[in-house]
Amino acid sequence: MGYSSSGGPAGAGPGRRSRQLALAGSSMLALWLYALYSCAGHCATAPAHERAAPPVAAAVASSARLRARPELYYYDSASENNNNINDNNVESAGEMERGASALSSLASGAGFRRLPQALIIGVKKGGTRALLEFLRVHPDVRAVGAEPHFFDRNYQNGLQWYRDLMPKTLEGQITMEKTPSYFVTREAPARIYAMSRDTKLIVVVRDPVTRAISDYTQTLSKKPDIPSFESLTFKNRTTGLIDTSWSAIQIGIYAKHLDNWLQYFPMRQILFVSGERLISDPAGELGRVQDFLGLKRIITDKHFYFNQTKGFPCLKKAEGSSKPHCLGKTKGRTHPNIDPEVVQRLRDFYRPFNMKFYQMTGHNFGWD
C-alpha cells in the first residue's frame, strides 16, 4: 500500500480527514443532545445550587450508594413465605429498586420542596402518629416527622416558611404532613383551601369516649396534679350536664367539626380512617389510604406484626431501616379506671353526634 507525503495511507487526503472530523463531530453532537434531553426534566427548573452531577454520573453514584446501603430498601421480602417467594421475586425486586433509588436520589440532593398534596388533619389521640409512620414506609410518600402546626399556630409565617419545612420529593412522590389539631381549628379549612383546593385530607377517628379518656391520660402523664376525669367531664355532676368546653370532650363531637370542613372541601376529598381498625387490621386501612392517595398498594400485611405487650401493630421495617419498629413509649399507656356511670353518661351524650357523623360519612364506625 502506498503512503502519502504526510505519513498516512494513500487516499487519506483532505477529503477523508474532513469526513472523519464530520463523523466525530456528529458523535459528539449526539452525545450532547442526549445529555441535554436527559437533563431537561430537572436542570431547566432546578435552582443553581441544586443542579447536581450529569445524569450518567448521578446514576453511577446512586448505584454505588445502593450497593453500600442495602438497608435503604423499603420492601420487606425477608418475611415472604418460601412457597411464594419465586412468584413474587420480580415484583419485590422492582419495589425495592424503586424505593432505594428514590432514597438515593434524594440523598444526592435531587428533588424539590413542595407544599403538601395531602394532610392528616386529625384527630388527636385517634392514631395519627401510627398512620403517618406506616405511610412513610411507602417509597412514594415523603412526610415531615414533627407536627408543623402551620394552619393553626404558625400561619403568620407564610407559605414559603411552610414549604421550607417539607422534605424534598421527586416527580411522582407525595408530600405529606400531619397535625391533628387542624380538624378542630375553625380557620384551618379556609387556610388550606387558599393553599390548594385539591388538597386531600385524612381524618383518623376513634370512639370519642375512649379518645377522651386517652386524651386525659396523656395530660395526666405530664400534669399528675390535674383534677379527676369525672370532675372535668361535668359542669354539674348532679344534673349530669357535660362540659363541652373541655377540649377532651369537644374534639369527639366529630359531626360539628366536619360541618366546618364541608364548607370548603367535598366529601370525596376527605378520607376517614378508623382508629380501631388501624390497630386490628393495619394493612386493610393502609390499603384504603393508598387507594385514596392514588398510590400503588405496596404496604400490605407482610409489613406488620402485632406486639402483644404494647397491644399495637409494629412495622417489620421502618422507613430507611432494616430493623423492626414500634411506636414510642407514649403509645399504649394504661388508662385510669373511670366510673362506669360517667362512661355511660358520655356514651349517651355522644350518641346523637355519632349518628349524624355516620350519616355524613356514609360509614358506621360501630361506637355504640
Describe the structure.
This protein is of the alpha/beta class. α10 (254-261) runs parallel beside α13 (340-361). The radius of gyration is 28 Å and the shape is globular. Residues 1-14 and 31-97 have low confidence and may be disordered. A hairpin with a 4-residue loop joins β10 and β11. The chain has helices at residues 14-43, 55-68, 85-107, 128-135, 159-165, 188-195, 208-222, 229-233, 247-250, 254-261, 275-280, 282-292, 340-361, and strands spanning 112-113, 118-122, 141-143, 168-169, 174-178, 200-205, 234-236, 241-242, 270-274, 304-307, 312-315. The protein is built from 13 helices and 11 strands. The relative contact order is 0.11. A 5-stranded parallel sheet has the order 3-5-2-6-9.
What features would you highlight for this structure?
single chain, alpha/beta, two-stranded antiparallel ribbon, 13 helices, disordered N terminus
Strand order of the largest sheet: 3-5-2-6-9
For the sheet with most strands, the description reads: 5 strands, parallel
The counted number of beta strands is 11
**Order of helical and strand elements:** HHHEEHEHEEHEHHEEHHEHHEEH
Distance between the termini: 101 Å
Round the Cα radius of gyration to an integer and report it: 28 Å
Strand content: 5-15%
**Number of distinct helices:** 13
Shape: globular
Strand-pairing-aware structural class: alpha/beta
Poorly predicted ranges:
1-14, 31-97
Percent in helix: 40-55%
Overall pLDDT confidence: 78
